[in-house]
Amino acid sequence: MVFRRGQRVEIYRRSSDEGWADYMDEYIGRHGIITDPDTAINDPDALVEVSLEDKGTHRFPQDCLREIT
Question: Any idea of the CA torsion for 15, 64, 43, 58, to the nearest 10 degrees?
Answer without folding.
Answer: -90
